[in-house]
Amino acid sequence: MSQIEKFRMPSLPSGFYWFNEPSTHRLGDGLEIFTDEKTDFWQRTHYGFRRDDGHCLLTTVPGDFSVKTHVEFRPQARYDQCGLIVRVDEENWIKTSTEYEDEQVSRLGSVVTNLGYSDWATQDVPSAHREMWYRISRRGSDFLIESSFDGREWLQMRIAHLHRAPEQLAVGVYACSPIGKAFRCRFSTLEISENGWFYEE
């Protein structure tokens, strides 16, 4: 299994599909997304609300895998975000991204949603970072979530479990603007490969 998509054609790559297609997007020089207003992914925890209307470009991947992407972004409003997503359904999924707070600080983090309840694990990073690499690796129902500032040195963010993880999962990139709109981001590549995450001896 190996697929590298750089989104150089003006149409969707074979096997890819939109979930909540954005009103404005471009293909040809990467995948550029401009978010619709007040879009988000979250389920219940702390805030009480349920949102499943963020934008995703997805493909279906069987078995274990590693998926990574590089994305550039220009946030405008609090919580603007873009990154990777692994999705079963509305109540079971994982996303990882950098969520904008203000001109000084953003939250590099991940959300794992199991059985309709989301959590949010974060660390502060300077908002001056306007590009990131993300990687999610699957081994059965367990997932390793990583990030990189340069695409070479990877930092573990967390290891997580999906309680309902079928043999095939929807995998891809996402973007949303929980309180704003027209957040611009550009994904230059999406790479799906054999799982490179192994048990340490």
Question: Layout of helices and strands, plus pairs?
Answer:
Blueprint: E1 2-5, E2 17-19, E3 24-27, E4 31-34, E5 41-43, E6 50-52, E7 55-62, E8 65-74, E9 81-89, E10 92-100, E11 105-114, E12 117-118, E13 121-126, E14 131-139, E15 142-148, E16 155-161, E17 168-176, E18 184-193
Antiparallel strand pairs: 1-18, 2-7, 3-4, 4-18, 5-6, 7-17, 8-14, 8-18, 9-10, 9-17, 10-11, 11-12, 11-13, 14-15, 15-16
Model description:
The protein has a single domain (2-193), classed as Sandwich (Jelly Rolls). The radius of gyration is 15 Å and the shape is globular. Strands 1, 3, 4, 8, 14, 15, 16 and 18 form an 8-stranded antiparallel sheet that branches. Strands 2, 7, 9, 10, 11, 12, 13 and 17 form an 8-stranded antiparallel sheet that branches. The protein has a two-stranded antiparallel ribbon with strand order 5-6. Helices cover 0% and strands 58% of the residues. The model has no long low-confidence stretch (mean pLDDT 96). The two termini are 25 Å apart. It is mostly beta strands and 201 residues long. It contains no helices and 18 strands.
